[in-house]
Specification:
This protein is an alpha+beta fold. Helix content is 16%, strand content 50%. The protein has one domain. It has 4 helices and 17 strands.
């Protein structure tokens, strides 16, 4: 390094270390890229749950638009232990859209007919499952998930609720629950987190109910989101290199101070 008066000009090696430590200015991030596979062909159009239930169908997300797909959502199934699968009419009315940003990717569900309206007791249930995975588990690990109920209605009865409950094969706690209710506490979002894993099996249970009173009741889920976060797993050589570079930097600072 070259000293000029009180100022120090960093060498190319020092700038490279700073970049490795994330201290250098990063270039602007490209937009996320999402592709959809319906079991036979790739496309750029979001899929319905019915299409995703087709064998081999999946959604992939390139979170930072760098040409490498980071997350895959696959192995979609319309079954569960409680025997509440989606009917074809309901699953045709659910569109699933992938989205992403740096170290984050997820799914947005838009529902057109998961609803009930009437004066009597109302109820509706549906469950599906899938696998969320980091496609490059050596470089990234899934660290957590956030569930958001972004558009739901529950009115009219003495007890009403529109709810989404996610259950995971790992994470602590192992489930998220979000509820829109006209009575009690509303929970529009919920989060859970690791240990760091390469993949997560997810089961989502949707339910509606409204009861009590003679007034007209309406319960519906129109949209919800699941967002999976991840962390970078540095290569062992990279970690060792950064530690060595950091030690060299401290030694150089000591020498400058001593001089």
């Amino acid at each position: 390094m070259t000293k000029i008066g009180r100022y120090t000009i960093p060498s190319a090696a020092a700038l490279a270390v700073a970049a490795g430590l994330g201290l250098a200015t990063a270039p602007a991030q490209a937009a996320a890229v999402v592709r959809y596979f319906n079991g036979s062909t790739f496309g750029a159009t979001p899929l319905t749950l019915t299409q995703l239930f087709t064998s081999g169908a999946f959604i992939e997300v390139d979170e930072d638009g760098n040409g490498t797909f980071d997350k895959r959502f696959s192995n979609w199934k319309n079954d569960d232990p409680n025997n509440n699968p989606f009917t074809t009419i309901l699953s045709n009315g659910v569109t699933v859209t992938g989205f992403g940003s740096a170290l984050s990717a997820g799914l947005q569900y838009d529902l057109t007919n998961f609803s009930r309206t009437g004066t009597g007791s109302l109820s509706l249930n549906g469950t599906f499952s899938y696998k969320a995975e980091s496609i490059n588990p050596g470089a990234f690990k899934i660290s957590g998930v956030k569930l958001d109920l972004t558009n739901a209605t529950a009115t009219g009865g003495t007890s009403n609720a529109a709810a989404v409950d996610d259950m995971y094969s790992t994470f602590a706690p192992p489930d998220n629950g979000v509820v829109k209710s006209s009575t009690g506490t509303n929970t529009p979002s919920d989060s859970t987190s690791g240990p760091l894993v390469s993949q997560v099996d997810v089961m989502s249970q949707l339910s509606l109910f409204a009861q009590g009173g003679s007034a007209s009741k309406t319960v519906a889920i129109a949209q919800f989101k699941q967002t999976f976060s991840q962390v970078v797993i540095p290569e062992p050589g990279t970690v060792a290199g950064l530690l060595v570079a950091g030690g060299l930097g401290l030694a150089m600072k000591r020498r400058q101070k001593d001089s």
